[in-house]
Amino acid sequence: MNYPEPQTARLLIAHLPPHTRFVLADNNYDRNHLYKQAGFDCGVQWMAPPKRGAKDVGHHQHRDWRLAVTHWLGSQAGRRLIKQH
Q1: Is the dihedral of CA 71, 7, 40, 21 positive or negative?
Q2: 25 contacts 46 by C-beta, under 8 angstroms
Q3: What is the share, in percent, of the chain residues with pLDDT greater than 90?
């Protein structure tokens, strides 16, 4: 691949099928711009767990798309889903 994975994801978000509602990704894709692009441009909830050791989402301003799923991903149900995939 000629681009970093998050940059490639940014290009692919625009091509998600119209019926897509959620995208589950690994922690390499836990990026503000991906949550924003997927949410605002496509109405898709991006779901990527934070990197190991991350205490919270950080001090930057975050969009509602990211904040809406952050606590769920840390819940028992969220962790179980991530382990399955």
Answers
A1: negative
A2: yes
A3: 41
